Amino acid sequence: MVGSEEEKGRIEDSKAFLCTVMRKLSSNMYYWREELFRADVGFVSKSDAFMNSYGEHTMPLFIDVLIEHENRYKEIHQEMWKLIFYRSPLKVLITYAYGEEAQNTVNKMLEFLGKANAKFRENENTEYLFVIGSVAGKDAKMKWRYASDKEQTLQELC
Prior knowledge:
Helix content is 32%, strand content 27%.
């Protein structure tokens, strides 16, 4: 019966257990939650989506292309973390930087990726694409460049 004393006791026991686990973990971990698990855009093939019993496409088995966008390049690590977390063969990060800060931004993201891969290696077929818009001065036109985890030096896009 829902709401019975027995069920309430089981719920309280499970809460106590989870609290004990969290206390043990908290000695060397911390709770972190900013935009956890919220990716900006994901492109999914309908043929790779899980079908529910009504024949509706509900959940993707994986994301074909995952895109993260960040206006503030100094906070780009949050978007990079999400790209590293998800499974996808192509992961795209779009951001902006001033002048030569663009290549430094790519280098920081590659360093971040390297540290993550040192702990838990990603699929070797996964590719990262970094697209960075930058301006040289106040009246300059936006210049788009790209790099990847394979071709790490920025190249002109358009």
